[in-house]
Amino acid sequence: MPSLRIVLVATCFASASAGACTPVDSCPKLSDGLYCPVNDVTEHADINRDVKLIKDHLKANDYTSAKAVYTGGSFSSKGGGIMRTLQALAQKDMTVNGKYTNVFFSGALDLYGSIDGIWHNYIIACLDDTGFCAGKSHDFKSYIINKCLIGVVTAYATYELGAAVWKAGENMTADDEAAYAWDEGAAFHIGNIEPVIGDGYTGKAPGNLYSPYEFNWKRDDDFDDGLSTHAAAPPTLNFGLLNVRGTYNAANVASAQLAMYKIYSIAAIRSALKYANKAYNNGTFQEKYLAEGWAYWRSASGYISTVNKTIVQQVDALFDLSLTDMPADTDCTIKSLLEPMYPDLGITCAMVGTWKDVREISGHCLATACDDTGNSATLGDSSTAWVDMCKAIPSTSESEMENSGFTASVAAAMPLSILAIFF
Ligand SMILES: *[C@@H]1O[C@H](CO)[C@@H](O)[C@H](O)[C@H]1NC(C)=O
Ligand SMILES: *[C@@H]1O[C@H](CO)[C@@H](O)[C@H](O)[C@H]1NC(C)=O
Ligand SMILES: *[C@@H]1O[C@H](CO)[C@@H](O)[C@H](O)[C@H]1NC(C)=O
User: Fold this and answer.
1) Ligand 2 neighbours (beta carbon < 6 A)
2) Residues near 93 by Cβ (< 8 Å), separated by ≥ 6?
């Protein structure tokens, strides 16, 4: 993979157009190493580094620093010394007063009553040890915060896709218009941290990406007889990019957007099944897995509620965060509640697959997938004809730069004269 960091610094010198790459055909790729953005979306992808940094602070029991990153940002600059923050993402009106259509977000808003009621209030309560989170265990609090942040970035990816659809509908099909918003969606989804193992696409989830893409990938590893949702996303996003660029094909772009919603739904459903089971834990309740199941289920519950809100509310109740016990049959109950929704969600039992940990347990309700008779849903079209604007950059070694403590925010804050000494 080409060095991701050096390219970012290079763009400090020439900012002709908001997202233009410098040189123009050398856009930095993302962690998957496949999707080629037609803009430099490094800073957008960098928000996933904030997710990782918060996790690291929490691991060290440092809630103060974790909160500072949430509210003030760290890695993701919007330029001019202004940081993009996870808090601002969590508090975004993702329809911009109804200008954009985003059923993924409006479904969540309808379920949870206010924008802050979706993620922000939960994150703050656990950072501050207040409200529902007061006195909870460190594991519970950090699981809520870490997993909520994945949901925040997931939702923000859908916001950018919705923005791209709106722009393309206004004939804004230049690379720095709808395609830029679409690329931002891809950047939030995938992130740009270099995988510690593997190529960022095949094999097992590397575990260090901290993006929605990696969350989906972990569930792919768990449900390894179902659809590989992380692998499906880059070609799906590329199909959308090709269809917002230059000539807008509304049906194709809508299909790509919907396919991303389906991918997120599958990850949420798999998580609900797995973590209901793990919270029960053969009778020894695991509170942190209640937190994980609750947050990951919520990452797509807004969209799923557009099919049947009542059912989603029933599943929400099964993950009530005040539970002190998880009944043995909750995983089975969730399975039977959700499976009838698959046709309307445009997904299948085969796509969801089965969780490998219980697959061999004879008679376990999660051991077998449901029956797809009459359900011929497909994910949607995709394309591996990647754009040819991501040629490798001859570069200094990335590790040298990182070892020198040279970071995006440092670079952004420096006058060009000082920055120049680094080259
Ligand atoms: C976009 O372009 C098409 C074809 O030129 C035109 O018919 C349509 O009115 C334009 N839409 C907007 C919103 O400008
Ligand atoms: C739970 O109990 C079942 C049946 O006794 C056993 O097969 C399974 O391994 C146990 N699971 C865990 C996580 O202990
Ligand atoms: C939602 O599911 C419930 C239970 O299956 C069903 O009674 C109800 O009609 C469904 N609602 C919609 C809008 O499909």
Assistant:
1) 282, 361
2) 115
What's 193-237 look like in SS3? CCCCCCCCCCCCCCCCCCCHHHHHHHHHHHCCCCCCHHHHHHHHH
- How many angstroms separate the CA atoms of 152 and 358, rounded? 30
Pocket of ligand 3 (CB under 6 A): 308, 310-311
Residues 311 and 239: their CA atoms lie apart, in Å, by: 32
Question: What's the distance, CA 391 to chain centroid?
Answer: 26
Separation of alpha carbons 266 and 227, rounded Å: 9
Q: For residue 327, give its domain range.
A: 27-199+208-390
- Decide if 399 is inside a domain: no
Q: In the prediction, which pLDDT does 396 show?
A: 52
Q: Is residue 142 part of a domain?
A: yes
Taking 50 as the pLDDT cut, the residues of the chain under it are 1-16, 397-423
Number of independent structural domains in the chain = 1
Q: Is 113 helix (H, G, I), strand (E, B) or coil?
A: coil
pLDDT of residue 195: 97
Q: What beta strand segments (E) does 74-164 contain?
A: 77-79, 82-83
The answer to whether 26 and 19 are in contact (CB under 8 A) is no
**Distance from Cα 281 to the centre of ligand 2, integer Å:** 8
Residues near ligand 1 (Cβ within 6 A): 170-171
Dihedrals phi, psi of 404, to nearest 5 degrees: -80, 0
Structure tokens at 240: 């959308």
Q: In this structure, is residue 10 part of a structural domain?
A: no
Q: Domain for residue 380, yes or no? A: yes
Query: How confident is the model at residue 357, as a pLDDT?
Result: 97
Q: Using alpha carbons, select from 121, 151, 102 the residue that is nearest to residue 271.
A: 151
Whole-structure pTM value:
0.89
pLDDT of residue 14: 40
- Give the per-residue pLDDT at 56: 98
- Measure Cα distances from 319 to 252, 275, 279 in Å: 36, 10, 10
Distance, CA of 154 to CA of 314 (rounded, Å): 23
Counting ligands in written order, the one closest to the CA of 167 is: 1
Ligand nearest to the CA of 338: 3
Rounded to the nearest angstrom, the distance between the alpha carbon of 256 and the centre of ligand 1 is 22
- List the residue whose alpha carbon is closest to atom 1 of ligand 2: 282
pLDDT at 84: 98
Phi–psi pair at 190, nearest 5 degrees: -90, -40
CA 217 to CA 266: how far, in whole Å? 11
